[in-house]
Design brief:
Helices cover about 25% and strands about 15% of the residues. The protein has one domain. The chain is of the alpha+beta class. The longest helix has 15 residues. It contains two helices and four strands. A hairpin with a 5-residue loop joins strand 2 and strand 3.
Amino acid sequence: MFDNEIKLKYGIEDEVEAFAFANNYATFGNPPVEINETWVKNQTITVTGADGQPQTIKPYANLGDGKNCPIHGVSSNPN
């Protein structure tokens, strides 16, 4: 059952942990960079805008501590 009314306390610290884990895994425990809040906030993705042109955005730039994800918004809690 999914309850779409429950908001997770999701924040930058969760993204730092996720990126650090992925980077550590992908480099067999020898990550070339330190994953921290600044590193995560500077990550970019390129999307296609309404005008058909590529646009580069920083989806985590405004993510603070313990807030909802800027991409997914309200998260559900599977039970």
